Amino acid sequence: MSLGLISWQRARQLVIDELVGDLAARAPRAPIVTVTLAAAQGRVLAEAVWVDRDLPPFHRATRDGFAVRAADARQAGVVLAIGGEARAGVAWASAMCAGTTIEIATGAPLPDGADAVVMIEHVVRLGDGTVRLERSAMPGENVVPRGSEACAGDVALACGSRLGPAQLALLASVGCAAPRVFARPRVAVLATGDELVPVEAVPGAAQIRNSNAVQLAAQVACAGGEPVLLPAAPDEPRALKLALEQAAACADQIVIAGGVSMGRYDLVGEVLAELGATFCFAGVALRPGKPAAFGRVLGRPFFALPGNPLSCLVTFEFFARPAIELASGATPTPLLLARATLAEPLAAPLLPLAQVLPAALVDGNDDGAGDSGVRVRAIPTHGSGDLAALARAQLWLLLPPGCGPLAAGDEVAVLPR
Ligand code: AMP
Ligand code: MG
User: Fold this and answer.
1) Which end of the chain is more exposed for a tag (fewer CB within 10 A), N or C?
2) Could you give all domains of the chain from N- to C-terminal order, each with its CATH number?
3) DSSP symbols for 21-58
4) 237 C-alpha to center of ligand 1: Å?
5) Model's pTM, two decimal places?
6) What does the pLDDT look like over 265-302, one tens digit per residue?
7) Backbone angles phi, psi at 161, to 5 degrees
8) How far does residue 318's CA lie from ligand 2's centre (Å)?
9) Ligand 1 pocket by C-beta < 6 Å: which residues?
């Protein structure tokens, strides 16, 4: 199964092509379920949702102040009689007469006849039922016209939209209390290794807790999948085989962690091959994560990821995440390669592989100085098993192959997650 190292970009594209092919062969894309808005965070819309009435549904005041006819307020100093008060949630019943003004709250419907709002800061109450405008008003000022954000009958959100806080708010505003979403793909999470014990157990002197399973389950959920946590499998061919068969039987995709390197007890590749797996790639020019493999076994796409926590986390994000996103009905999130400036020198080794390093934002990014953009520094680690360093990271640096040490002030690509 030595297929040679390929670039992470090529590996990621192979995953995407394979999953897109899967989806094309499957109609409908996935079962559809109806969920409450409270349960819809992260889900993917299976049907478009339409706007049920104009947004905003009335000409809406965007400031606390006084509704006026702009024709009455062409210059500062005009005095107008207060004709009443328009509050949010209450429609102003009658038309506003020329030469008058209506006190109005942010979010209230503009009275008929008014076409602008003068902010309260620019109005003086004269105490005799009149106000003096300290500013002139232009038609439309501080007013959002009815239907200017969306019209009744428009598509509010298209099929395939991922529902985050803003999308959920939009659904709420158009009265969609129970969106129809795609069922989440079930993703089996199988950690392997003789040294692993469950989180609740007391580890022996040479044992460690199975943190990868927890990490991967959280990543699966973030990507839009439903994690199916399997008990960790030992480094033993028969047990591994059974665990993989169980994974294929209970899930749509399989993520395996550990046992994919070159060691004597790294048996995952061998057992996958025995089960008739086909490999799209096995080995990526990426550090950490070089042994990562992807293919199909027992009819399921599988990802065999290295067991070191950082390697596991990175390779999941690069390769498994787009597969789960596609299977959940969404389009893959780009890896978002933003640029940032190194605040400190970086002693990266010169390697023919792309390198991913945990990093932190440097204080002062929010100070408004705004001259150098985002400034970051690499977090020193004791290798790719250093979970404590990983947990301090706010983002990752991605160095291209052939990149060696860097100086403070050099630009680097960052993955903001
Ligand atoms: P492997 O990829 O199996 O060679 O494992 C590489 C390193 O990752 C070893 O130090 C393992 O102990 C560690 N490791 C493997 N699986 C896990 C896991 N599920 N949770 C935490 N660490 C792990
Ligand atoms: Mg192992």
Assistant:
1) C
2) 8-31+183-327 (3.40.980.10), 49-55+150-181 (no CATH), 60-144 (2.170.190.11), 338-416 (2.40.340.10)
3) HHHHHSSSSS-EEE--GGG-TT-BBSS-EE-SS-BSSS
4) 17
5) 0.91
6) 999 999 999 999 999 999 999 999 999 999 999 999 99
7) -75, 135
8) 21
9) 191, 193, 195-196, 208, 210-213, 257-259, 261, 263, 266, 306-309, 385
